[in-house]
Amino acid sequence: MNAQTKPQADSATGTAFFSVRDIHAYYGESYIVQGVSFDIAEGDIVALLGRNGAGKTSTLRTLARAQDPQLKRGEIWLGDLPVHTLKDYQASQSGIQFVQEDRRIIPGLTVEENLQLSQIAEPKGWPLEKIYECFPRLAERRKQDGVTLSGGEQQMLAVARALARDIRLLLLDEPYEGLAPVIVKEIERIVSQIKELGITTIIVEQNAVAALELANRALILDMGQIVFDGTAKSVLDNPDLRNEYLAI
Amino acid sequence: MDQLILQLLNGLDKGAAYALIALGLTLVFGTLGIVNFAHGALFMIGAFCAVVFSRLLQLETVTIDPARLTPWGSPMEVRTPLVQAWLGDFGAVLVQWSVPLSILFAIPVMLIVGVAMERGLIRYFYKRAHADQILVTFGLAIVLQEIVKANFGANPIPVTAPAALAGSVDVGGWLGLSGVFYPWWRLVYLGFALAVMGLVIAFLRFTTYGMVVRAGMEDRQTVGFLGIDIEKRFTVVFGIAAVVAGIAGAMYTPIVSPNYHIGMDFLVLSFVVVVVGGMGSVSGAVFAGFLLGILQSFASMNEVKNILPGIDQVIIYLVAVVVLLVMPRGLMGRKGVMEN
Amino acid sequence: MTALRNDLIYLVVFAVAVLAMPIWLAPFGAAYPDLMQKFAIYGIFAIGFNILFGMTGYLSFGHAAFLGVGSYAAVWSFKLLSMNVIPAIALAVLVSGLFAAAIGYISLRRSGIYFSILTLAFAQMSYNLAYSVFTPITNGETGLQLALNDPRVIDRALFADAPGIPRPNLFGIELGGYEAFYLCAVILILCFFVAMRIDRSPFGMMLKAIKSNQTRMAYTGFNTRPYTLSAFIISGIYAGIAGGLLAVTDPLAGAERMQWTASGEVVLMTILGGVGTLVGPVIGAVVIKYFENIFSAFHMAKLEDIFSFLPDGLESFVVSIVSPFVGEGWHLTLGIMFMLIVVFLPGGLMEGARRIRARFGGGRGTGSKAHSSNPAPAE
Amino acid sequence: MLIKKINRRVFLQSSGIVGAGLAMPMILSSAARAQGFCNNPTGSKVVFGFNCPQTGAYAEEGKDQLKAYELAVKHINGEGDGGMLNTFKGTALKGNGILGKKVAYVTGDTQTKSDAARASATRMIERDGAIMISGGSSSGVAVAVQSLCQDMGIIFMSGLTHSNDTTGKDKKKNGFRHFFNAHMSGVAIAPVLGEAYGKERRAYHLTADYTWGWTQEESIKAATEALGWQTVQTVRTPVGAADFSQYITPVLNSGADVLILNHYGNDMVNSLRQAIQFGLRDKQVNGKNFEIVVPLFSELMAQGAGDAIKGIYGTANWDWKLENAGTKAFTKSFGEAYGTPPSQAAQTGYVQALLYADACERAGTFNPEGVVKALEDFEFDGLGNGPTLYRGSDHQCFKPVLVVQGKEKPKDKYDLLQVVKEVPTKTVTYDPSIFGGELGPVGTKC
Fold this sequence. Notes:
A: six-stranded mixed beta sheet, 10 helices, disordered N terminus, C: disordered C terminus
């Protein structure tokens, strides 16, 4: 079943748009990401799937260059940029934007200040006007303390924060988690907008079906390793695979 | 009535000193998560900035006069002050005003000291246990003290306020009472402290830089994912904390003669102030500083001491215990900060 | 079984090392009774402190209060009852235990730095009051001393008076320098043994579980207070025994024993030696007391004497390099040492020992690993 | 109850057999006990222990004192210019050490803490074999070390200690004090104050809240009240308060017209400077100028207080500007060696070392029994204070007391105090029984 990863070469340079080569990452002493490799072409929307504790969030955090888990081996390339040598803020400055799970809206700051925070460091993405245009709900509440927003609005704000930065690769961690179905619809609308913009995205989501509907590719993680790499459709069509690794 | 006003002023003055030290301490807690036992040493270095500055202004050329002898028979030295020789009367004015002017000298010095301390040592301890932080900063504090002691001796060094601000002023006159006199310099110190605290709070509250710092205090990781090098900004915050402690020390010299130990004497108290105010809360530290200062002053009144002997010596700790038992995170503490 | 045997070996090695102090400390200039007594006494203090801090993670900044109270209790026992050390130590244990129970009961309502400041506040209040208002009980700054006309009711009832102020004794054995040292050493070994038993007991396991996950235990509705309070009281009693022994070896009790600097000292000893290890705190205590007593005692003439084997120019050069670090500069050396150790040996001196063992002893670490656990980050 | 009182010695011997197993190490220390007295010097050297504060608030005084001790050792051994040895009338010292043995010395840091001071004294006695301990800069430490030396059979020649207790309530047979005390300060300064400020004054005391402060407050209060002054209030202040404002403001409206600061060290520097900042000396109360008095002065603290001491009265044990041969000789050798004039802490230490050496030489032994005898009721002159008596009944020196005043126009930073009056010995002598205490027997056993 282990599909061989085929390097999808970028036509111009001969290297992939985003390439992960055998990364190993640790939380303290515990070995979480155990040699993950894959390549992504520009414009791909990739669903990173797997059971609880399979290492999805850890992989995403490693790609975003979080301090934890600690990357001990392996390389991450964004074009010819060695992402594995960067720190979190440098990764963001080079275009990798990470929307964390739980939204992480900063307490004590207004909606607008939360957005402004995204536009401190260069390069910037959408100006605030454009964001407010796209998210009128946020425009209404711009002076409100960010943490007083509803869960869905907070998720909007979190995505908007990413859009306010220059995006080459978007990492979305559990965007639908803990949201009522009505609100999930709204977030789905935003994510499909992102898809239309052609932003390369890796999405981690418990709700695999929702993620696979958006994605064109799927990666399945188990025990810290990639066990499947193929099209999103092939996962939806393969009940055995879903049963074994995704329990759906 | 007069007594109450005077004690209130005393308390405000004391509180101003406590609050200024606690302010920097709590900023460093809140941003870097560091328990900085060397913070008192920064106050001490600031105080010695004032000493050094006034000595620089009073640099002298020394010539030997063989015609005159010291009591133990060696030739007498004749000293001519340099700055006065160059600048005449203006030099004398500079010497007069050396304490307030020393702030200009202390700010760059403290900034350098603070940034060097953070980059050179503290940053390796962000992720270490608080116990390790305590040990290393305590060690640093001792080393800094001993360096000062080796150069300036252990005796307190008298530093004078400008003559124009050395006497007392009739505060009662302003309030329509008679005969309430209070030293000028202490009022200056109070005003200075309020100004510094106002500046720091305004900086955090109303500038974009301050907004980023506040965001970093809440969630440094998210701020990092938004492309901001928060460590660099925290280094600057550490520098600011050092400057605040330093100029607080420099301006305090006419009130308490500085010696190498002055910072350690304030350290424990300022920790109590920070905790009573609530860890990481700047306004809490300011409020608690004034509160404890005022309570201490009133507890020292003979009328109070006659009823409760020794209360002036324990009041601060007593208040700390009561506050912490009633309000688990101090007066204005945030949830989850430094609770484990 | 092997764990038990390893513990036994560990204990025997420790006991031999302690009892043989007069021999192996001689080359270091530290083999005189008073300093060895201090090593043993502060070793007890630090072992006890580690039972609280090392096992539960609660950092008390006021532990010197119990040391001071223990001293006062012992001296009062000498003054009122008898010069025998047994009632003195018993009274020190009782008083410090009660005192620790009271302070611990209140302080343990909070955790983290709030706990530290509560303990600090209690200790500072004790110190300030002992220094001034409580002078009738503590004799203030001068310290509580024995006097010729003390009642000593038991002694007076049993024995005829001898001239002069009697010395503390153990059923007739007068406790001079070496006798007092061996008494302290034996008590240190006993205290070490008890600490080891606590460390290996279910109670000790529970304390360590509390340290590693206070919040989880709180969520599960488990009441940790009785455990932490017991640890606090035990560690307070250790401090009380140490304080009592200070009074036994030198019958004087001063308020400064309760000052925050004294509380800070035991924190430093423990961290320096290695938090959470059994023998680390003792080593920390030895190192700090050694610096305090030996490094402070060098003076110019003595340095010149030491380096006199060097040629003249070199001698004065070396002396001028060394002199800022000894004598009146001994604090400087201490500060630098704190920094170096914490920077390069995060687990204290025990971490250094472990690294040396790992380098030279290969993978043989039989049981030794159990004794040197790294302190968990406090966050 | 029929408990026969057993002779203590017999009991000790019989129980000693039981404790024989434990007592193995006693063999080591019993060697010391066989000497006849503690640390009997057997070689060509005799060791002095100088126990001075080298860290903490009094480190500077300790440093000055240590310099003086170094000088004393040199002079006793016949090195250097001899200092006061040349002016010490009728001394038995010949500048070849003591009883033919050269003097060596060890030092220790008291940290101005009783525990640390006793630990370092014990080290000097147990490890280094010191035969005498001297030094210190506070009364608490002096009392603590004095009782230790008594127990260990060593002579203690105290340094700067001013409390009445040192040779009063807490006096010891093995302890000797050259420095004057609070009582003498009070008796000496009162007439000068009466002359300068009049007999109708109302005094307010701020007192450091520990034993030395209390004894000084008591002594000054008694002396000024005898003069006709009233005491309005006595207020205790915590040691090391740094900011005394809350204790100073009540003075203004208390009706007092004199403030007496029973403070020493940093407390004195800060409280005095702050009192002046509060304008106390610019005030008129009860139609009189408000005055401040600091009963115990020290040059080093005067340096710390700066201009604040101008015109302030106090007392001192000695001053380097005194016009006598001993003072001149000592100031000369100290100034040549270290470039500054000596403080009174230095002088008292130096003199104590010389007196001890001389007593051994005269007694012909280092045995405390003999030394104590030689020092008790010893009269001497030429050590800077004029004719002096070491009184046998309490081991207190009696000599003139200096009343000093802060100079208005100092020539340099060492010229801060001027001697206003030398109060004769007769005036400051008192009945030793007023302070109680008992000397007890000489301690000779380790």
